[in-house]
Amino acid sequence: MRRRSVILLGLGGAASAAAFTLGLGAWRSREGVLARQDPRLPLPLSLMDWRLTDHRGNAVSPDDWIGRPAMVFFGFTWCPDVCPTTLLDISDWLEELGSDADDLTVALITVDPERDRPEVLADYLANFDPRITGLTGTSDQVGSAAEGFRVTYQKVPREGEDYTMNHTAGVFLFHRDGRFGGIVDFHEDRRYTIPKIRRMLG
Amino acid sequence: MKTLILAFVLLGAAPAAFACESVSVGGITVQQPWSRVSIGTQRPGVLYLTIRNDGPADDALTAVSTPAAETPMLHETVVSDGIASMPHVMQVPVPAGETVELRPGGYHGMLMGLTGPLEEGATFPVTLTFATAGEITIPVQVLSMRAEGPECDDGQ
């Protein structure tokens, strides 16, 4: 009786091992990853599909970031409070990390491509840590990027022609291999942030 | 004489620090008003300050006006379900005995339609209207783009 259970267990084990091996291909495929993906969290960079232009005029796509850890957030330069605050926080983190962060890709993706053209981003970012890159594109291009990061944004009209943008506020972290590594929330305590970033850098 | 020289040395050593203004009317004290340098006049400027209510009754900041901007407004940055929005607020409550801050990431004055660029080191006046205390006018220091709080030389 006991012996039979052992055999059955053994067979079961072999079957699961085979299933595991067979399943591994699907597991690693784009569809497999997408199926298991929490719809609220950013995709791995390797599965994102977008193309943007940086504030120096260079084309950038997610593949360009793989191989280095990355820190990405969405915002716009017409916002007087959240975006300078986030940029200042990031500048402070970079300063604290020093040369350890030289390897890190740091990018602001605008949710307001209408006003934030590359030269406008360049002008604005000149006030912050030079390691921060600004990215913009057509509204469709920004839309594709937002989709990959599971970011939402919305134009909110104000008096006259003026408008502001509501948008996802967190800072996304990615491992060297492009896997999503976590979010730094807007009001998060800085004591937890630096170790979180260091884990991406290691 | 020595003291005089020392005073000059101290002044010279802290060129970026200001004596942060503080103005009281009734039980309301407004202090440490600051803003950030603007890039031109197209983007809205920002206004941060601290309000203390030492009076016995609740009050509220209901309006802000300044010659520095055509449409100064009160806003609050709200992050809900990870989405940041910046709704216009009709008033900022200042309960009796409490201190309320307009600071990065929370309540702030939004200076729409700047009448001129805000230059680092300059000051501009703002008039705050309170429901009970009435009007308080105070000069606002324009700090660098990288300022994250008031920079006062009295250690506040």
Compact summary:
The complex is a heterodimer of chains A (202) and B (156). With 202 residues, chain A is α+β, with helices and mostly antiparallel strands.
Structural write-up:
- The complex is a heterodimer of chains A (202) and B (156).
- Chain A has 202 residues and is of the alpha+beta class.
- Chain A has two domains: 2-36; 45-201, 3-Layer(aba) Sandwich (Glutaredoxin).
- Chain A has helices at 2-28, 30-36, 82-97, 118-125, 139-149, 190-201; strands at residues 52-54, 59-60, 70-75, 105-110, 132-136, 153-157, 163-168, 171-174, 180-184.
- In chain A, the strands form two sheets. In chain A, strands 2-1-5-4-3-8-9 form a seven-stranded mixed β-sheet, sandwiched between helices.
- In chain A, helix 1 crosses helix 2 (30-36).
- The radius of gyration of chain A is 21 Å and the shape is globular.
- With 156 residues, chain B is mostly beta strands.
- Chain B has a single domain, classed as PCu(A)C copper chaperone (Immunoglobulin-like).
- Helices cover 8% and strands 49% of the residues of chain B.
- In chain B, strand 1 and strand 2 (28-36) form a beta hairpin.
- Mean pLDDT of chain B is 87; it is low at 1-16.
- Chains A and B meet through helix 3 and strand 7 of A and strand 7 and strand 10 of B.
- Strand 7 (163-168) of chain A pairs antiparallel with strand 7 of chain B.
Topology:
The complex is a heterodimer of chains A (202) and B (156).
Chain A: H1 2-28, H2 30-36, E1 52-54, E2 59-60, E3 70-75, H3 82-97, E4 105-110, H4 118-125, E5 132-136, H5 139-149, E6 153-157, E7 163-168, E8 171-174, E9 180-184, H6 190-201
Parallel strand pairs in A: 3-4, 4-5
Antiparallel strand pairs in A: 1-2, 1-5, 3-8, 6-7, 8-9
Helix pairs in contact in A: 1-2
Chain B: H1 2-13, E1 22-25, E2 28-36, E3 45-53, E4 59-65, E5 69-76, E6 78-80, E7 83-85, E8 92-94, E9 99-102, E10 107-114, E11 123-130, E12 134-143
Parallel strand pairs in B: 2-12
Antiparallel strand pairs in B: 1-2, 2-3, 3-9, 3-10, 4-8, 4-11, 5-10, 6-7, 11-12
